[in-house]
Write the structure tokens for this entry.
Amino acid sequence: MAIFGPQYPFRLQQVIDHAERFVALLTSMRVRGEPSGDVARAWLTGRVEEIESVLGTLVADWRGGRLSESSAVAAVSSYLGAMHAAAERQLGTEAEAECCRSDVANTIPLTAYGDDGATADTLPGSPAALADSERPER
């Protein structure tokens, strides 16, 4: 079963769509031969498959009733936040990666972290949550 596509409740669909754009960004970098460093290329190797596998597991848990929709949204958001932070560190992507730009209005946190609408932007340690002085140097 395909993970991506219009098949989820609205909030879950938003984070799955974001993950799909992130996968497309990583795939386009790989096709263009970016990044050039060995460590960055090693980080990118197999990353798309990993993301699809993690999302597949989370979606299966949601469909099987083992995760509520809110928990699935939070889990996908948390994972994407970690992947974005790692991509920024390893690949030199911007804190607001290309995949985030088309839905900035939809991903601005409406509630505080820990509430029902938690997003990757509100997770402790996410690029958006780190103070400028705490951001890792590239």
In short: Residues 104-138 have pLDDT under 50 and may be disordered. The radius of gyration is 15 Å.
